[in-house]
Design goal:
The protein is α/β, with parallel strands linked by helices. It folds into 3 domains: 307 residues, Rossmann fold (3-Layer(aba) Sandwich), CATH 3.40.50.300; 216 residues, P-loop containing nucleotide triphosphate hydrolases (Rossmann fold, 3-Layer(aba) Sandwich); 95 residues, no CATH class. 30% of the residues lie in helices and 22% in strands. It has 23 helices and 24 strands. The strands form 4 sheets. Strands 6-7-8-3-9-10-12-11 form an 8-stranded mixed β-sheet, with helices on both faces. Strands 18-19-20-15-21-22-24-23 form an 8-stranded mixed β-sheet, sandwiched between helices. Strands 2-1-4-5 form a 4-stranded antiparallel β-sheet, covered by helices on one side. β1 and β2 form a beta hairpin. α16 runs parallel beside α18. The longest helix has 18 residues.
Length: 666
């Protein structure tokens, strides 16, 4: 056991509920070796984040550790007092949170926040802050270090949090959904960074996530949790190729994949109801293989192969699933309307004023038809959320026009008619900031009803319960507060709040980023049904290209506020590609398949003199042309438009070349 850095033994944790306590983690045991990455997966509310926080000795007033032991090296973490925990956190074990918006101090400059960590542990600041920002792919100049968190994109905020966690080079890092809000290229950079740090520093990690594809790229072993229980632990390759527990099979079957047709997902049967868990296996109510014994007798982890443990009575009876791919969703509706529901024409948005202003969106043309889903993809800072916020009326356009049902909308939402406001609903990326922490879920859902349908007072409670059921939450959630829900559950409430207004257009800003794959699959089915049955259209912002391929009718690729490529889903995901689109696709993590090295430079795109926004990062840049001359729109004849100086034939040829890195062609 000398190579074991972290050891968790029989950990049980409860949260206060009313006058009593609810057990949320039950007898969880695992260890992490030096230099090893252990992944922890499971549906929202399974207890994985609770376990992760216990590794740092987290002691909330409404939480208690009922049993168990956590040892980091020779240190008994649960036995430390506050002074001991302060010395441990940051120096020996650090934490990367899921939500950087609430983790960073809004009143402190980001450079100062890094220095605060170093100073607290007696480390020299010197040039360490600049070094850390460079490591995580952020500018290290004085201008950037003096920015406040609100002046950074979501991806940049998360990278600051990662830099803070790495500041003192701890032996163990706990990462709770660290790349949830990041685009695929930034996500790949962060994963590469973590892999490099592990190899160079011998750092160990617990990586909590619902992104199974990403986890397969970094984790050595994976633990699967359900309803507070550990149901399977196995080496990564073994888990993906031969999942043994029925729940693990369901998770992998619900995983969207970018290969194939993108529709090979199937949500798990039923819902997790913690109030009615059986005495035996917690998954028995949803298991297709359950026996009467499974409902009554507790299953413990037992060997199912080398370094492979499974908690299932029937492990010796069930056939090994060596190809856990599930059936698909129905095809997306393709009906087109003569008059688009939404039309964006020549839209430009500027941030700031004077010399410090910059154009976040530049001359964007886009339409969304009834029953259509248009996906916006691109890196953090590409302008996706800015476009959605301008459509919602939260940002006033500098130029251009937005029309809904053929009628021009006022720039700001306060100047729009109530009916226009109802027809366009925004689902935010971060439900922590968008839900009122002092209002129950039922009250938050009832507010849109009172605002938009004041004459329908009767039946309000029934409509709230129906809205919760649409997003796979039971009626009991109406009495809860946001802090009593997991991140995924809060996001589902945010989706329900938008749907209850009966909109024509949903602006979905990374709405699936906090959801585990099984719940994600059910939400995707819901969105498809809303589109086909109710005619709801969506502008769907996402960095998950596998989800985009499954859900979108058309895809719009943005970079630095400009459209690089736009077309039908089938056309965008097949050659020819815009060089930027190809770099995004090559960075997508696929289970047990190493991402290709993207065709892009490591540095941000260089400033240009009116040329292509992607010049300077493009691996196939044409010297003397791309940085000085606006690129032309190319059409393939297959409902695809690409904005590039290369011809369609040349882009087709480049798509077949081996991926490489570089600053561009001479």
């Amino acid at each position: 056991m000398s190579d074991v850095l972290l050891q968790v033994s029989d950990l049980s944790v409860s949260y206060r509920q009313g006058l009593g306590w609810r057990r949320v983690v039950e007898g969880v045991s695992f260890d992490v070796r030096r230099g090893e990455v252990l992944g922890l997966v499971g549906e929202s509310g399974c207890g994985k984040s609770t376990v992760a926080l216990q590794l740092l000795g987290f002691r909330h007033g409404s939480l208690r550790t009922d049993a168990g032991r956590i040892r980091l090296g020779s240190t008994d973490v649960l036995g430390l007092n506050r002074a001991g925990l302060d010395a441990l956190r940051g120096a020996e074990v650090s934490f990367v949170p899921q939500n950087p918006t609430t983790a960073l101090n809004p009143g402190m400059r980001v450079g100062v926040q890094i220095e605060e960590i170093l100073t607290a542990h007696g480390r020299s600041t010197g040039g360490r802050t600049r070094e850390l920002f460079g490591l995580v792919g952020l500018p290290s100049n004085d201008t950037f270090l003096r920015r406040y968190p609100h002046q950074l994109s979501g991806g940049q905020q998360q990278r600051v949090c990662i830099a803070m966690a790495l500041a003192c080079e701890p032996r163990f890092v706990v990462l709770d959904e660290p790349t949830t809000g990041l685009d695929v290229t930034t996500q790949e950079q962060i994963v590469d960074l973590l892999v490099d740090l592990r190899g160079r520093l011998g750092m160990s990690m617990l990586y909590v996530t619902h992104d199974l594809g990403l986890l397969s790229q970094i984790a050595d072993r994976i633990g699967v949790m359900y309803a507070g229980h550990m149901v399977e632990i196995a080496p990564t390759v073994e888990l993906f190729s031969k999942p043994r527990h029925p729940y693990t099979r369901g998770l992998i079957g619900a995983l969207p994949r970018i290969d194939g047709d993108g529709r090979n997902v199937k949500p798990l049967r039923g819902l997790l109801h913690r109030d009615s868990l059986p005495k035996g296996c917690p998954f028995a109510q949803r298991c297709d293989f359950a026996l009467p014994r499974c409902f009554e007798e507790v299953q413990a982890l037992s060997p199912a192969g080398p370094a492979h443990e499974v908690a299932c009575w029937r492990i010796g009876e069930l056939p090994v699933d060596t190809n856990p791919v599930a059936s698909g969703l129905p095809p997306a509706a393709q009906k087109r309307e003569a008059e688009p529901l939404l039309a964006v024409e020549g839209l430009s948005v500027r941030y700031g004023s004077g010399k410090r202003s910059f154009e976040a969106l530049k001359d964007v043309y886009l339409s969304v038809n009834k029953r259509e889903t248009v996906a916006l993809v691109g890196e953090s800072g590409s302008g996706k959320s800015t476009l959605a916020r301008a459509i919602a009326g939260m940002l006033a356009p500098a130029n251009g026009e937005i029309r809904l049902r053929g009628v021009a909308l006022e720039g700001l939402v306060r100047d729009r008619k109530p009916e226009q406001r109802r027809l366009v609903q925004y689902i935010f990326q971060n439900p922590d900031a968008s839900l009122n922490p002092r209002a129950t879920i039922g009250r938050s859902l009832a507010r849109p009803l009172a605002f938009y349908f004041p004459e329908q007072e009767a039946g309000k409670a029934e409509k709230v319960i129906a809205a919760l059921a649409e997003v796979r939450l039971d009626a009991g959630y109406a009495a809860r507060y946001p802090d009593q829900l997991s991140g995924g559950e809060r996001q589902r409430v945010a989706i329900a709040r938008a749907l209850i207004a009966e909109p024509d257009l949903l602006l979905c800003d990374e709405v699936l980023s906090a959801l585990d794959v099984s719940v994600q699959a059910s939400i995707l089915e819901l969105l498809q049904r809303l589109k086909s049955e109710l005619g709801v259209a969506m502008l769907f912002i996402s960095h998950d290209l596998a989800v985009v391929r499954m859900l979108a009718d058309r895809v719009c690729v943005l970079f630095r506020g400009e459209i690089m490529e736009i077309g039908t889903r089938e056309a965008v995901f097949a050659p020819p590609f815009h060089p930027y689109t190809q770099s995004l696709l090559e960075a997508v993590p696929t289970p047990l398949k190493k991402p290709q090295s993207p065709r892009r430079a490591e540095l941000p795109a260089a400033e240009n003199n009116g040329g292509c926004a992607y010049a300077g990062r493009c691996a196939v840049e044409i010297a003397g042309l791309c940085r000085t001359t606006p690129p032309l729109w190319r059409e393939t004849g297959t409902r695809l438009r690409i904005r590039c100086h290369h011809s369609i034939d040349e882009l087709q040829r480049l798509a077949t070349m081996p991926a490489h890195r570089g600053e561009g062609s001479p």
